[in-house]
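Repro:
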Amino acid sequence: MQRKEFLDKISGGLALTCVSCMMAACSKDSSTSESNPNNNGNTVLLSVNLSNQLLAVKDFISSKGIIVVRIADGNLASSFVAFFNACTHEGAAVEYDAASNGFVCPRHFATFSISGSVTGAPATTPLTSRTVGVTGSTLTVK
């Protein structure tokens, strides 16, 4: 086999391998909450033990691409709000600000109310809310 023929054969296989690797690396894993904002509502994205977390009003957690804030006393679903933590402007993770009882994006300082609505530009659409459920001392976010 000639050197040119060998290189032609091996480079074709490498090109195919590289293309498939790049496609896999660039694709999103739909099983993760961060990359699946259109979750159908049946998958539990986050579970929280209310015996040792979110004990007081304005306590919050941010985990697995979800931010949850306790807005009232009692272990009822209505005592909490949950959102995907991605800012709707450019996707940076928003942070809860207890002083304003809302959310702030640290990248361009978009602000959101505790209900997720936009209160300050540059964002123009509200945060994506999630469904909260409470059974016993376990809070779930779907």
